[in-house]
Design a protein that fits this description.
- The protein is mainly α.
- It folds into two domains: 123 residues, no CATH class; 49 residues.
- The protein has a three-stranded mixed sheet with strand order 1-2-3, with helices on one face.
- Helix 1 crosses helix 2 and helix 3 packs antiparallel against helix 4.
- The protein is elongated and about 70 Å long.
């Protein structure tokens, strides 16, 4: 049971707070956390919600001792809720993957540990940029491909070839992103 007392919060904010607390407890305890009942209190009202929020994954074990859980939540919740939505979402996904890493074949376990690095790096690293010369090349290729598709409509009706050619420009962006990091 999770009981929240937030006098100025709306029900949507209470639910988001409950979800954040469960995610952080899941991180700290190193395993999934489930809740079937949540109680939200205001000065003049009480709302009980019986809805299953699951975290059935079995993780690698606690990283925060149980006697420090309250202190951890007080600090972590403030910082977690201050994150922009895309970073909070990446954190949730990363925690879920880490909590799946305790069982299974070694390749799956390694995947569940390394995959969060990709989510988190995509959320925190600045987007890469193309140099002026490469941007010029990309623009020329796009124009040429557009003209070619007008002349040969049946050869690339879904834009597969065009997408393959233009996807080559993700590598210079990635290189720039890594160099900035």
């Amino acid at each position: 049971m999770l009981e929240l007392v937030c006098p100025d919060a709306q029900i949507k904010e209470h639910l988001e707070m409950a979800r954040s607390i469960m995610i952080l407890i899941s991180l700290a305890s190193g395993t999934g956390v489930s809740s079937h009942r949540r109680i939200f209190r205001w000065e003049s009202d009480v709302l009980k919600i019986w809805r299953r929020m699951t975290g059935e994954e079995r993780g690698p074990g606690p990283i925060v001792p149980s006697f420090e859980m309250s202190s951890f939540l007080q600090i972590a919740l403030v910082h977690f809720d201050a994150l922009p939505p895309e970073k909070r979402s990446a954190m949730r996904l990363a925690i879920n993957y880490i909590n799946l890493s305790a069982n299974g074949y070694i390749d799956n376990r390694l995947f569940h540990i390394t995959q969060p690095w990709e989510f988190l790096s995509q959320a925190w690293i600045k987007a890469g940029k193309l140099s002026t010369d490469v941007l010029s090349l990309r623009s020329r290729l796009k124009r040429t491909l557009k003209d070619w598709r007008q002349e040969h409509k049946t050869l690339d009706p879904n834009g597969f070839l065009t997408a393959r050619v233009l996807s080559a420009f993700t590598w210079p962006k990635l290189k720039d992103q890594i160099e900035q990091y």
